[in-house]
Amino acid sequence: MRSLVPFTHGWLFNADYTAATIADQGAVGTAVTLPHTAVELPFSYFDETTYWRPFLYRKSFEFESGWAGKEVSLVFDGAMANSKVFLNGDEIASHQDGYTPFEVRLTGRLKVGSNLISVVLDGSENPRIPPFGGQIDYLTYAGIYREVWLKVVEPVSIGNVKIETPDALATEKTVTVRVTLSNPASAAFSGALVATIRDAAGAVIATVEKAVSSEEMSFSFTGLKGLTLWEPNAPTLYTLDVTFGGDKVIERFGFRTAEVTPEGFKLNGKPLKIRGLNRHQSFPYVGYAMGKSVQERDAEILKHQLHVNLVRTSHYPQSKHFLNRCDELGLLVFEEIPGWQHIGAAEWKAQAVDNVAAMIRRDWNHPSIILWGVRINESQDDHDFYAETNRVARELDSTRQTGGVRYITDSELLEDVYTMNDFILGNEELGGNRPRTALRPQQEVTGKNHNVPYMITEFGGHMYPTKIYDQEQRQAEHVRRHLDVLNAAYGDSSISGAIGWCAFDYNTHKDFGSGDRICHHGVMDMFREPKFAAFAYASQCEPDEDVILAPVTFWARGERNIGGVLPLLILTNCDEVELQYGNYPPKRVGPDREAFPHLPHPPVIVDRRHFSAEELGLWGMRWEAARITGYVDGKAVKTIHYADDPVPVELEVVADAAELDGSKKDSTRVIIRVKDQAGHKLPFLFDPVTISVEGPARLLGPSTVPLRAGATGFWIETTGGAGTVKVTVGLERLGSKTLAFSAN
Fold first, then answer.
1. Using an 8 Å Cβ cutoff, are 317 and 335 in contact?
2. How far apart are CA 586 and CA 420, in angstroms?
């Protein structure tokens, strides 16, 4: 039988080592558990070159008698980068790319007794491989930052399984399957392959048995009835069990169609406007080295808190745990190969083509993935190179379209979809001669006289970076820019949708961002705490999914340049909003469909139009408390209060999870908020808070941190073993709070 077990505990890490250490089982090192980052960085203002050097990971393990006559290998989900793998001091494999998985065969090389696996990797930016060779606007933290698995299988085993659903919309459906066997020793084989489709409850839907005569075979299930489509609001998943001899593989899949057309995007034959955000897979302090639960949580934030329907994995393949959760949640994915603007020489291009193949082979069964990104983000045209990346993608997976993200106009379209980063909004500030424009017409961008499949893949971002603690007026403009582009995309049927830059702030090189090694481009900060712009996306969901009522204000008379809070932008999906200020008559205001005619849920804008001359002369002269209420179908569904004299009264400490898996490296996020008497964060409170952790877990990052916009966050991770974990957060003026977690 197949055995695939975590190979993550018991590693020794050496930041400094000699060649002799690679083969020395007795050499000392720091005990670590994977995923692991080679260098933990400060939150900001650091030197990213500290990880631009080699590092060593080692792990001893015993040969087991049950491995005799089996194929034994190690599967690395991701290591950054330029990895060389040694067994008992002998180099046995290498893998340069930092984002794609690789497998290292140990069969025939293991000795009875103790064996030593050593991995040397180099975090230097290797100009021979993507994304390196130029300047990139993100960090590529060194380390074995994803899981490693010990795989033991029969000499002839199942190598890969590709599942296709060619007639997903038919009443009687078909599933086609291609199975490739792994036979590294060219052993003789025979027997039957058995494949079974099951529903989510495990009930058998259909079974096929096929005699095996070659290392690659294809077969089909036909006439399947009563099956449910994979939809964003009902992401039905099925499993395919494939058994051959003593080997078994289980793959999940879904029935759906997805196509970007000149008339827009269609999912399962129905129009769907894409409303998305880009995601970097990085986190404060530990970079890429976050495991399953945190990866899953990011997908949940995008789906349930930001209410987007698509995420782009900018600018590289991301964690399988993240993608698996997207499958489960019904969150669409546009996945792309590593790279940022720069195209290297022949060896570099060959690696990029290999990256296309590795990405697709790893992820081709995910129903959430609708588009393969086969062009280096924001690169110039290169006909031969991109003809090859497209050819490989189409040869491996003809069921999905290809896209290639560019920011140059009149670009050669070799992909199926013209995917464009349109940063025209804001160019008027750089001396442009056109009025404020949200998006350019697609034919102006493409240079063609007809529409093509077209999608906006980035907007905003560096055109208007906004910190979570920025002045209210800047944050309101930040919101308007996201709304303007979303409104324009919704209003143009030739645009399949728009993917904002970006979901979360992220660390970057010194050449980018705000000089603090942070790009403050997100609608959330690095701790996934929302800025006002987050609600520009969230408010487009329907109120039966989540009632959104988010006034873009700190409710302070003197915060804006001219004083007061008018115009007051309220992000909401309510039918109307009532503002009650002091003793003045309440103002009942509906969505501004004149300014935002195409949005599903335009914001409510309270301005001078809603006040009499007498009220305008008095309103705001004496600052008073307020109440804002949202109404749906004539009923009050949500109310927000504002105090006229906000002071800190509550220290709120909340965690994403109360239980941790102590058997592996598990993590959870904790958010700290300091709130006023009306329940709002204090946006300009920067007091320090202290954090302590007791029990089988550790704090990621420093134990004393400042609040940022009245809040901050951190992650804790398990250190092994079961028990109670206590986290205590202290703020001098409000005392402390303790959370308890169970590590099982």
1. yes
2. 45
Residues 6+ apart with CB under 8 A from 113: 62, 63
Contact between 53 and 126 (Cβ < 8 Å): no
Specify whether 378 is catalytic.
yes
- Which positions of the chain have pLDDT values less than 70? 429-432, 618, 620
| Cβ count near 216 (within 10 Å) | 10
Q: Given this model, what pLDDT does residue 431 score?
A: 62
From 458, 472, 529, 717, the catalytic residue: 458
Bridge pairing between strands 247-253 and 238-244: antiparallel
Is residue 131 within 8 A of residue 339, CB to CB? The reply is: yes
Helix pair 346-363, 383-396: axis angle to 10 deg: 20
Residue 299 · residue 319 · CB < 8 Å: no
DSSP 8-class letter at 662: T
- Residue count of the chain, please give it: 744
pLDDT for the residue 583:
81
Backbone CA torsion sign across 568, 570, 575, 579: negative
| Cα dihedral 146, 151, 157, 160 in deg (nearest 10) | 0
pLDDT in tens, 348-388: 999 999 999 999 999 999 999 999 999 999 999 999 999 99
User: Model-level pTM?
Assistant: 0.95
pLDDT digits (tens, 9 = 90+) for 224-274: 999 999 999 999 999 999 999 889 999 999 999 999 999 999 999 999 999
Query: Where are the extended beta strands (E) located within 183-284?
Result: 192-198, 204-211, 216-224, 230-231, 234-235, 238-244, 247-253, 258-261, 264-267, 270-271, 274-278
- SS3 at position 350: helix
Whole-number Cα distances in Å, 670 to 145, 341, 700:
21, 36, 11
Query: Read out DSSP for 6-53?
Result: E--SSEEEESS--GGGGG-TT---EEE-SS--SSPPPSSS--GGGGSS
Catalytic, out of 147, 164, 259, 378: 378
Residue with the two structure tokens 């965690």? 655
Q: Are 359 and 317 contacting, i.e. CB atoms less than 8 angstroms apart?
A: yes
Q: Name, in order, each residue with C-beta under 8 angstroms of 296's C-beta and a sequence gap of 6 or more.
A: 321, 322, 324, 325
Quote the radius of gyration of the chain (alpha carbons, Å): 27
Model pLDDT, residue 430:
63
How far is it, in rounded angstroms, from Cα 2 to Cα 633?
Answer: 57
Spatial contact of 224 and 172, defined as CB atoms under 8 Å apart = yes
Distance CA 261, CA 268 (A): 13
64 belongs to the catalytic site: no
What confidence score (pLDDT) does residue 622 get? Answer: 80
| Cβ-based neighbour number of residue 214 at 10 Å | 8
Residue 689 CA, chain-centre distance (Å), reads 29
According to DSSP, the residues that pair with 578 across neighbouring strands are 588, 629
Q: Residue 70 — left, alpha, or beta (φ > 0 → left; ψ -120 to 50 → alpha)? A: beta
Identify whether the C-beta of residue 277 lies closer than 8 Å to the C-beta of residue 499: yes
307: left (phi over 0), alpha (psi -120 to 50) or beta: left
Taking alpha carbons only, the member of 514, 606, 527 closest to residue 568 is: 606
Distances (CA, A) of 102 to 99, 359, 455: 10, 11, 32
Nearest of 569, 420, 419 to residue 481 by alpha carbon? 569
